[in-house]
Amino acid sequence: QVELRESGGAQVQPGESLRLSCVASGFTFRTALVKWHRQAPGKERELVGSINKDGSTFDYSTSVAGRFTISRDNPKNTAYLQMDNLKSEDTAVYYCHLIHFLGEFWGPGTQVTVSL
Predict the structure, then answer these.
(1) CA-CA distances (angstroms) from residue 114 to 9, 12, 45, 65, 98?
(2) CA distance 107 to 87
(3) CA distances from 13 to 26, 74, 80 (A)
(4) 79-114 residue pLDDT tens
(5) Residue 91, phi then psi, degrees to nearest 5
């Protein structure tokens, strides 16, 4: 059974940092493309960025490029989203999304709130 679970969400102030984690189980993590998405209240879900299977290639949305960093630790079946210089507009539920030959899988999400 494939399972994903995000963690690390919290309420922080503008300018602070957070690191989200996504732990996967039930399949061979190193063979999956990893994407992070977010959904703010009243808005559609948007792609934040992605990382390829071996962690050598990255892609970020223009809204987070230069502030967010995606990484992965394949032996630990874990992907990370390092978020620096957070802004109020980064407030959203953040989701881990894995694309694998078995299918596509989503975690339940973790809430990030950026406010004074």
Answers:
(1) 10, 5, 18, 18, 26
(2) 23
(3) 36, 31, 20
(4) 999 999 999 999 999 999 999 888 999 999 999 999
(5) -60, 125
User: Which residues are CB-neighbours of 25 under 8 A, at least 6 positions away?
Assistant: 2, 3, 77
Nearest 5°: phi and psi at 29?
Answer: -60, -35
pLDDT digits (tens, 9 = 90+) for 39-65: 999 999 999 999 999 999 999 999 999
The span from the CA of 79 to the CA of 81, in Å, is 7
Amino acid at 36: W
What single DSSP character describes residue 62? T
In the three-class reduction of DSSP (H, G, I as helix; E, B as strand; rest coil), residue 39 is classed as: strand
The H or E element spanning position 25 is: strand 18-25
Cβ atoms within 10 A of the Cβ of 109, count? 19
CA-nearest of 17, 19, 18 to 73 is: 19
